[in-house]
Amino acid sequence: DVTKESDVIKCFGWINDTIGAIHILINNAGVLRNTHFNDGNLEDWKCLFDTNVLAVGMCTKQALRSMEAHGINDGHIVNINSIRSRYQSMKDGSSWYSASKHAVGVLTDGLRRELASKKSRIKVSSLNPGGVLTEIFEKGHIHRDPEAPALTAKDVADSVIHVIGTPPNVQISELTIIPVQQYNM
């Protein structure tokens, strides 16, 4: 469970003991909730921030510790964020989700600056996809228009490969991908 620090520490400990150094971290866990200010519930708000923000921080911290312990100075951290990190949805009830994704964008930029100030060559990227056909809508009990243009998980994976495949002197700090014909940012 990425929202539990003890689980995250245990997982990364297993990776270090069994596999070895972490060179690349892809933070991809995320939840979506349709929640409002007036009648929204605190548990939904906490769930959004625990999963979408704090889990990213905890996993990143453990990956950086692994990289440091193994002398990895050219790793890569990719945060699968959302177009909502840049554009508020027109749909009612999406403010809390958008706020959590905006926080990830700010933290990603902050980490990149922190590492650069230490002369680290570890790259940090934010990948901001538009609508992707995954179970996030179902699990969040949110209706998704089946006719709306959407990306696939493979589209996102291909973009990750593009981001991590750059030469050592090139860092894609942020990449936004949307399906052709997506118009309601």
TrEMBL record:
**Superkingdom of origin organism:** Eukaryota
Q: Give the Gene Ontology MF terms in alphabetical order.
A: oxidoreductase activity
Q: Keyword Oxidoreductase on this protein? A: yes
Task: Give the matching SUPFAM superfamilies.
Answer: NAD(P)-binding Rossmann-fold domains (SSF51735)
User: What keywords does the record list, in alphabetical order?
Assistant: Oxidoreductase
Q: Please name the InterPro entries in this protein's record.
A: NAD(P)-bd_dom_sf (IPR036291), SDR_fam (IPR002347)
Looking up Pfam families in the UniProt record yields: adh_short (PF00106)
Which family would the database say this protein is a member of?
Answer: Belongs to the short-chain dehydrogenases/reductases (SDR) family.
This chain belongs to the protein called Dehydrogenase/reductase SDR family member 11
Organism (species): Cacopsylla melanoneura
Taxonomic lineage per UniProt? Eukaryota, Metazoa, Ecdysozoa, Arthropoda, Hexapoda
